[in-house]
Amino acid sequence: MSIITVKNLRKSFGKVEVLKDINAAVKEKEVVCVIGPSGSGKSTFLRCLNRLEEISGGEVVINGHDITDSKININKVRQEVGMVFQQFNLFPHKSVLENITMGPIKILGTEKAEAEKLAIELLGKVGLREKASSYPGELSGGQKQRVAIARALAMNPKIMLFDEPTSALDPEMVGDVLEVMKQLAKEGMTMVVVTHEMGFAREVGDRVIFMDGGYIVEENIPNELFSNPQHERTKAFLSKVL
Amino acid sequence: MDIISAALPILLKGLQVTLYIFVIAIILGFLIGLVVALLRLAPIKILNWIAKIYVDAIRGTPFIVQLFFIYFGVNSLHIVSLNSTTAGIITVAINAGAYFAEIIRAGIQSIDKGQTEAARSIGFTASQTMRYVVLPQAFRRMLPTITNQSIISLKDTSLLSVIGIADLTQQGQIQASATFEAFKIWLAVGVIYFIIIYLLTILANFIERRIQLR
Q1: Each residue's pLDDT tens digit, B129-162
Q2: Which of A66, B47, B118, B185 could form a disulfide linkage to B42, CB 3.0–4.6 angstroms apart?
Q3: Nearest CA in chain B to A163
Q4: DSSP secondary structure string for all residues of B26-52
C-alpha cells in the first residue's frame, strides 16, 4: 500500500517544463532517496509532494488525499507531511523551543505545557536538549538543521520530506544531521530525501531514484543502482559523484 | 522670561492637542498602512491597483492640499460634516497610512521566502504565516523607518493650525501676536517640538533594543 502515489506529474515554470511525466510511489516506512544533477527537477519534485509548488498536471495522492484536487484543504495535508529545507528556515525571532511548539500550539491546539514537553523530548532526540532557550542565530548550521527536523516532527507527521538537508552545512556538521535521519528511518518514518550524500542513500535508502532532465531515468535498490546502473545518464552521473 | 512663563501653560495646552491628534492619527495611519500593504501584496490584481492608486495619490500631492480637500472639499459636499479636529486626524492618518503602506510592504518583501515556505509546510494558513512568522520579523526591520515617518507626521500636524485647530503651532501664533515677542515664543515652540520628537526617538531606540536582544 503506497502512502505516496504520483501519476503523470508535470510541472512548468512559465514555458519551461521542469517535470515531465513523473510516476512514482512510496510505501509506508520506506526511505526513498532522490539523486541527480542540479536542474534535474528533484527538488521541484519533492516540493510538489506538499504542494509548495503548484502542480501543473497529473495526480499526487498523499496518504489518501489527492492534493491536486482544488477543493482539498492543503493545510491539513501539510500537517501530515514534515519538510526539512536546505537553508533550515528556522524562525529567527522565536527561541528553539518556540520554533518547535508553535505548530502544535497554534495549529493543533495543543496545551502549551504539553507542547513544550514534547519539544524537549524531540530536542533530546536530536541531541540538543540544552539549546531549548537559545535563538536560531546562536546555533551552528548542523544544530539549526537538527532543530528544523525536531520542528517538523513536532506535528507528528506520517511522511518526512528532506530537500538537500546537508548541502548548506560545513562538512563536519553533516554527520550529526545524517545520524538523526538514520535514527528516524530506523524508527519507521516514511522519508523522501533529495540528497547528494551517496553514502547515506546507499546505507539508509530502501530505494534510490535517479532523475535527470525532468524525468525519472532509473530507480532501484541502492546497491543495484550504484553498482549496476542501467542507463548511460545514470552511469555518467555516478562516475562524477562517486 | 516672564513672557515665556506666562505663555507656557497655553503652549502646553496646544501641545496636548497636538499629541492627541498625533497619537490617534498615527495609530489609524498604521492600521491603514497595514491593510493597504496587504492589499498591495494580495494575489488579486484589482486590490493591488486600488492600493497603488491610493499610495500614489497621497505621495503625489502636498499635505496641505490633502488637508484642504478633506476639510473644505469634502465638507462642501454636505454629505458629512467634519469638524476641524476630525478632518485633521483623518488627513494625518491617510497621509501617514500611504507612507506606512510602502514601509510595511517593503518590510514584508524583505523577509526570505523560505520563512513562508517553512511555515506553510508545517500547516500554517497564509494568514497565520503572515501573523506569526512574517510580520513580527518584518516589523523589527521596519521600526527605524516607522519612527522616521512618525516624526514627519508629528511635524505635519503643525500645518493643521491653518484650519483653526488649537494645536501647539496655533497657540504659538496667538501668543506671538498677543505679546509681540515672536522671537521668544517661536523659539519656545520649536524647543517644545524638539523635546517631544527627541523623547519619541528615545522611545523608538528603546523598543528597537528590546526586540533586537531576542
Answers
A1: 999 999 999 999 999 999 999 999 999 999 999 9
A2: B47
A3: B118
A4: HHHHHHHHHHHHHHHHSS-HHHHHHHH
